[in-house]
Amino acid sequence: MFYALQGMRRRNWGVSYTYFNQRTVLNEVKCEGVGLHSGNRVTMRLKPAAPDFGIQFRRMDVCDRPTIPAVHKRVVDTFLATSIGFDGVVVATIEHLMAALMGRGVDNVLIELDGPEVPIFDGSAAHYLRVLNEAGIREQNAPRQHLRIDRNVLVMDGDAYIKATPSDIFRIRYTIDFPHPLVGRQELTWSFSENAFDCEISRARTFGFLKDVEKLQSMGLARGGSLANAVVFDERSVLNQEGFRYANECVRHKILDFIGDLALAGMPPQGSFEVYKAGHALHNRFLKKLLADSKACSAATLHPACVPLYPVPAAAGYAGAFTAISKPLQ
């Protein structure tokens, strides 16, 4: 394709997050870890899937091995994490893995688990990226669709809000404000690309406050939580000896969570998102409102004559125009 298009006039329309075709993992890969809230050890397998299969989770420890698609309609709980479920079968804490799959451009994969929760690893998306790198990524002969924002959408909860506006790129402006001397108000404006996700977002860990952790554990939650998989603050300091991975690690992790929750749209976004003091519950409310309004967004596909602005790693060095073939979302 590169050689056939060498004569095309190169144009940068700002679309910095997309590949032309859908992608899946090249090989099956297995990993093991502990669930953040259950504290149970779980084995996870990622398997290649056909085009348009999407991202689906299969509970291997449940009779009949039910499969749950990772879509916003299947969200059953947003307290401290995002959980999906169907007929009483749940897969919990999926947001970091979902963010990694979007960050690596994986559209189709079957994820098998022998427990109710995705392993937390170090509390970031970095280990999931290593797992995906081990599996390898394969481009498929099917066009990818993107969630294009067509008009402004706003959801609010008190002073917290999420606003989406049309844009040629996937950009997030996220603001948090916690009454702690090492957190406080943090704001970051960030534009998506695979390299930027790897370097600037993927290693940001989940965080919490010691007084809240102790309360949660008394409720039977956060049983797998430790300094190995979370940044924990006491009243004035951070308890992790290594300190922060980024000076503003907390707001970066909130962007990571938001990316993972947006991935439940089933396609990568194309738009600008302003998020203020939100969490998983508001993320999900926003996505439901967005997808319920056929005039607010549409499914856009790269025109077959075009190529992605940032290329598949094996074929670097070219960019093409973005031409959308759009249809309303169902």
Question: Secondary-structure blueprint of this entry?
Answer:
Elements (H helix, E strand, L loop, with lengths): L20 E5 L3 E6 L6 E8 L6 E5 L7 E3 L5 E3 L5 E4 L2 E3 L3 H9 L5 E5 L12 H10 L1 E7 L1 E5 L3 E5 L2 E6 L5 E8 L5 E8 L2 H8 L5 E3 H9 L12 E3 L15 H14 L6 E2 L1 E5 L3 H13 L4 E6 L21 E5 L2
Parallel strand pairs: 4-9, 11-18, 14-19, 16-17
Antiparallel strand pairs: 1-10, 2-3, 3-9, 4-5, 6-7, 7-8, 11-20, 12-13, 13-19, 14-15, 20-21
Helix pairs in contact: 1-2, 1-5, 5-6
Tell me the distance between the termini.
33 Å
Largest sheet entry: 5 strands, mixed
- The total count of strands amounts to 21
Count, helices = 6
What is the fold named in CATH at topology level? lpxc deacetylase, domain 1
Top-tier CATH class: Alpha Beta
* Total discrete domains: 1
Specify the structural class.
alpha+beta
Mean pLDDT: 85
How many whole angstroms does the radius of gyration measure?
19 Å
Poorly predicted runs: 1-18, 303-330
Shape: globular
Strand order of the largest sheet: 2-3-9-4-5
Helix content: 10-25%
Helices and strands, in order, run as EEEEEEEEHEHEEEEEEHEHEHEEHEE
